[in-house]
Amino acid sequence: MILCWQRFALFLLFAMAITPVTTMRNIMYLTGQHPVIPYDVSLRKPITHVALAFMNSNTFNRDEESSSWPMFMSVEEARSEFEPGTKIMIAIGGWGDTGGFDTAARTEENRNRFARNVANMVRDTGADGVDIDWEYPGGNGEDYKQVPNEEKAWEITAYPLLLAEIRTALGPDKLMSAAVPGIPRDMLAFTADTVPQIMKSLDFLNVMTYDLMNRRDNVTKHHTGVQLSLEAVDAYMANGAPADKINLGFAFYTKYFRVEGKSCAESPIGCPTGLMEDPETGADLGKTGGFSWHDNIPEDVKESFMKALYEGQYDEQGGGYWYFDPDPALWWTFDTPEAIAMKFPLIVKEKKLGGVFAWGLGEDAPDFAHLKALNAGVERLTKMKDEL
């Protein structure tokens, strides 16, 4: 005779046997600027998704039927470069690509046409889904000085409608994600009213927790800082995004800013930067810069960067690696492998997030030191989940 507790134990064993192991998402954007893939299989194996970036949004506003979908790498080629089971997605849009989305979202007819073309592209290319990179619906994009935010307010309600149309066209079996702003001032379209609608269409959100300092700021801070990243994640969760559908963003590149004089030497963090963009046009005034780990270091900052690399320090309060070079008055901010490792217990584990992503895979070549740190963090948390 089987006792109640024995039946319960058998039920648990059966449930554990049929419940799949939950693997954290580990997403890599693969860009046309740096289409470099590691040869080492141990570096590729932990990657769960690859987003090929970018396909221009205007591509999907055309009326004529076409099976031509130009990309720097085909889905078939990407599949051959990664491990079996890796999901290959197409990223549509990107920084500065707003016109195509603006056209698409304006009317029901336009939304339907755009979504139909996206679905056709996924079918023709064999992709597993799409990542929608309309990064700043509602305003604050690259053209925010030319087209004021009030003229884009209609996009706040149109954005979830466009996503819903794309989801309907794709069907339930294809993946759909969106890259979304990491700075609260830019989350104009991500409110308590819209986020629940948005999440109905998406499998996950890629929260861009990088470039958290940019030329629109007026004091120094960490462009990938822990505290600023937590603020971003908290904002989406407070407005209705489930934690397990949020992916934390990592930047495989450096950033530097030219500040006003040498006065920042005494208190570098939070130091005034001076004007970094034209107040009328929004144009870059040449005080910001950056490069990926795969790029050549610009000669005019090479010596300063070497100092930043070897003399920089980690800010325990804000959670970021930084260096201030007083002679050229340069503020450096970027993630080291050690800084990447810190984010897993402090953000990913603490907030119970569903995954991570990085911009971008090839940007970390040839050493892939930051990818190694990211993979290690994912593997540790996945193992912890498996042991619970």
TrEMBL record:
Domain GH18: start-end pairs: 24-388
GO molecular function, one term: chitin binding
EC number(s) given by UniProt: 3.2.1.14
Protein name: chitinase
Organism: Xylaria flabelliformis
InterPro entries found in the cross-reference section: Chitinase_II/V-like_cat (IPR011583), GH (IPR017853), Glyco_hydro18_cat (IPR001223), Glycosyl_Hydrlase_18 (IPR050314)
GO CC annotation terms, alphabetical: extracellular region
Gene Ontology BP term (one): carbohydrate metabolic process
Sorted UniProt keywords: Signal
Short name of one Pfam family: Glyco_hydro_18
Leader sequence residues: 1-23
